[in-house]
Amino acid sequence: MLSKRELKILRSLRQKKFRNEHGKFLVEGEKLVQEAIESDFEVEAVYHGQSQTPPTPSSFAVQEVSQKELSQISSMKNPPGIMALVKFPDKSFKISSDKILAVEGINDPGNLGTILRIADWFGIETVLCSEETVDEFNPKVIQSSMGSIFRTRLARVDLTEKIEKLKAKGYSIVGAEMSGKKLDRDTIPQKAVLVMGSESHGISPEIQKLLDFSVTIEKRGGAESLNVAVATGIILSYWV
Amino acid sequence: MLSKRELKILRSLRQKKFRNEHGKFLVEGEKLVQEAIESDFEVEAVYHGQSQTPPTPSSFAVQEVSQKELSQISSMKNPPGIMALVKFPDKSFKISSDKILAVEGINDPGNLGTILRIADWFGIETVLCSEETVDEFNPKVIQSSMGSIFRTRLARVDLTEKIEKLKAKGYSIVGAEMSGKKLDRDTIPQKAVLVMGSESHGISPEIQKLLDFSVTIEKRGGAESLNVAVATGIILSYWV
Lengths: 240, 240
Description:
Two copies of one chain form a homodimer. Chain A has helices at 4-12, 16-22, 30-38, 67-73, 109-121, 139-145, 159-168, 205-208, 228-239; strands at 24-28, 43-48, 61-64, 82-87, 99-103, 126-130, 153-157, 172-182, 192-196, 213-216. By secondary structure, the first copy, chain A, is α/β, with parallel strands linked by helices. Chain A folds into two domains: 4-87, CATH 3.30.1330.30; 99-239, Alpha/beta knot (3-Layer(aba) Sandwich), CATH 3.40.1280.10. In chain A, helix 6 links the parallel strand 6 and strand 7. Chain A is elongated. The model of chain A has no long low-confidence stretch (mean pLDDT 94). Chains A and B meet through helix 5 and helix 9 of A and helix 5 and helix 9 of B. Chains A, B: Belongs to the class IV-like SAM-binding methyltransferase superfamily. RNA methyltransferase TrmH family. Chains A, B: Pfam families: MRM3-like_sub_bind, SpoU_methylase.
């Protein structure tokens, strides 16, 4: 059983404000908990229901909790029987890769999670995101990343400033836009930052100024646009 | 104001069973209603709130309803101020295109809607889906298709039987699977059926038997899989 104080803290982690205050987030479900444990992230505690076999503890606490407590903590309609409390990763890492994905103002948590999963599939190690992009520790981002949140390095940065610096270091800056060069195997240089804009507003004027050029997925039918995660998947498949 | 009977019928259309019984479905929001009106589909009626300018009627009825009625009919948390009642399209069409997309057992309405949007973007006219695939007139499918439901011809068929027939007519049958030929511009023949399996189970053994070969999106990183809609987008971008 959890103390009132513990329960209150765990419940509060459903909100970004309290995740930032505590520097921790919750991961729900057996598969994601296992991925968290196996990752470089620091798991602080695992909470599980009676019917769930807990993982073998190493550096973290394991505690059995009631079904009621699980429902109170969970952000899901049908709470899974196991959750992990995970510390925010160290975000001060040096960018060492030639291929960088940058996302600007992605609001939909499902889209950001799916983009992380795609980046992970294609071996993109570094994802930069603008400050107003949806919180990466939002439960829906974590769920839709299918564990890729633990394998991709995401940095929340002043995107304009960061892109200016990368441009000065020889990176080509390439935006995904509705009109631009036709996407093919050699359209995007090997050393580049690919910028994906927000679902509704695209790439901001500040970042558009920094673009060397834009790239476009050729349209042949009637749809007005592609979902931003789908577009990211297509472009990465030609670039990596 | 709507009669009790009308209200009951409109509300019931949130369920597949009643959509099939009446042969009608609801479309919500200004953009989708406009797309429905401009499409080949037959719009029977448009319902709108006081603040919403109704479209100019032609062959359909236009009725002002209260906010309460809109909320009662809507399947959305924040009901938009306008909805259209649309008849099921005539589904007896002849397949005339060389490139056919077939989806088997897609359960998630967001995925099916996104797949229709992608097919529409790439000009794939015909989408075949297995009988157990989620209902295409599910409100979430319609929303996530972003109007492509009105431009893509979707046929719900006995997929094994249909694919057997198409194979006999000279179509290559190509599955998207985790191991197969590496995807590139010329991997999939011009005249072919591309089969995308379900999110959790992939392609069924019955249809696997009919495949000429499988195609795979090369993986370079850690993610176990790609979302089925993302994978569809990537493969179509190389094929069309």
